[in-house]
Amino acid sequence: MEFEWLNSRIADETMELVLLFNEEGSILYGNQTAAVRLEYDREKLTRCSMSQIFRQDFPNSPDGFISFVKKCMKGVNEMTMYRSNNSCFSVNVRIFPQDGMDAYLLLAEDISAQKNMNMRIRELKEKESENYRARNEFTANVTHELRTPVNGIKGHVMELVEEVTDPGQKKTLDIVLSCCDNMLTIINDILDFAKLESGKFVIDEKPFDFQEMMDKVIATHSAAINKKELHMSVDIDEKIPQRLIGDELRLTQILNNLLSNAIKFTMVGYVNVVVGMTRRVYDEVELFFMVRDSGIGISQKEQDRLFQSFSQVDASITRRFGGTGLGLAITKQLVELMHGDIHVESEKGKGSTFSFSVKLKSEQVLDDKQSQVYVNWSEYMKEESDQGADRLMQFGEAENRDELKKRMDKLVLSIEMGAWDKAELLASTLKALIESSGDEDLKRQELRMEMAIRKSNYDKSMDMYGRLKDAITERIGDLWNSE
Ligand code: ADP
């Protein structure tokens, strides 16, 4: 056979391994690269068979061999080539039939370096994630161990506080106690963060009393609120089922973090908490929480990196207020583990609103008709007001007195919280009712209050609310003292 074209310098100098073989699998030609890479002299290579060089891939039987060759002609195949010394390397193989000859041309590209490189990268990645896991585990273990002695110190100091009478010593011990508490907060944050990062965090699903949980959360912060003389208000949707199933401890932790930040960064004004139910389908309940403050606020640029770990908006904050910058990163991860989202709206110098949603279960399972989806927060507020409007249509009727009082109480809370949208909706609910009474004086009072609310004027709104309340009392008796 004539293989002149194959014997050309091009075939010999190509980086690819070139083999020509017949239907019996005997090698008829091998280029210089093939001879060097396979460690044969060229004479000897032409006496080899394909199943010797590709002993893992090419079948030995003549039938199997040719059908395998035909299969390989369809594209690039990864195979293993064996050297004369029985060592091997990986190649990408293409096979072409040779017209007019009972022979096939095989081109093989050595990919062993690339494969080794990929393997090395994979090994390094595995090692890195192993190191990362080990580091997180170490952090979790150390912080866990640190908690025990700090708790021990705290316990002994608390006993001493009971015993000492000297005010100076008492003050020192109080400082030690507060240092212990700060240290425990930091240790717990680091522990939680390490657990969350290593994916070892599990969310509990246990029944709990929602209102009781909220009361405890608020009570935890009341001393700090009073100390700073801030105004605190809490508005909880009455529709939220009392018994819920979820992770009470972690929900408390989220609220505690947002509330302690709100208090920490507010010098004058208010801190509000609003909780609504935005969805209730069968046994699934979606709650929406807002923690609002009139504090120092956060600029748009700073808001972008707020939920990243170790991020405090500027270094002077750390010096002035302390903290690790882990709180919001943990909060975000906890919210996400409860299938929710967290957002912030804030303006520098004017205050911040942190809002988040979580999905919990209710002990009571609803049917299709009872299930409600409010879609979003503003719709939720509208729905709440509209329902109120229906119930309040007949002003002064005995069965509506309670409802009227509730609406008025919610209205004043909304004004106090600066929840102007909600206050406006509640005021329009009352308008429909008051118009039905036909009393001109009441109508005027209501309108004035609505105008003040629309202008977000706190003092005026409160004044007008007081006047409306007096006017209602004058007409249908004192709702507020009758219970
Ligand atoms: P830290 O534990 O240090 O408070 P966080 O992750 O809870 O960490 O908060 C990160 C930073 O976000 C705070 O240091 C503060 O600069 C800013 N921040 C958080 N909440 C508020 C808020 N309500 N008002 C103003 N700044 C806030």
Descriptive key words:
13 strands; 17 helices; 5-stranded antiparallel beta sheet; alpha+beta; 483 residues; 8-stranded mixed beta sheet; binds adenosine-5'-diphosphate
Counted by DSSP, the helix tally is 17
Q: Tell me the structural class.
A: alpha+beta
Question: How is the main sheet built?
Answer: 8 strands, mixed
Total DSSP E strands: 13
Please give a structural write-up:
This protein has 483 residues and is an alpha+beta fold. It has helices at residues 9-13, 32-38, 42-45, 50-53, 62-72, 112-163, 167-197, 210-227, 248-264, 300-304, 315-321, 327-337, 377-391, 398-417, 420-437, 440-454, 458-476; strands spanning 17-22, 27-30, 77-82, 88-98, 103-110, 206-209, 231-236, 243-246, 270-281, 284-293, 342-347, 351-362, 372-373. The strands form two sheets. Strands 6, 7, 8, 9, 10, 11, 12 and 13 form an eight-stranded mixed β-sheet that branches. A hairpin with a 4-residue loop joins β4 (88-98) and β5 (103-110). The radius of gyration is 38 Å and the shape is elongated. The protein starts with 8 loop residues before the first helix and ends in a 7-residue tail after the last helix. Mean pLDDT is 83; it is low at 388-393. It binds adenosine-5'-diphosphate (ADP). Adenosine-5'-diphosphate binds at residues 257, 261-262, 265, 293, 295-296, 298, 306, 312-313, 317, 323-328, 352.
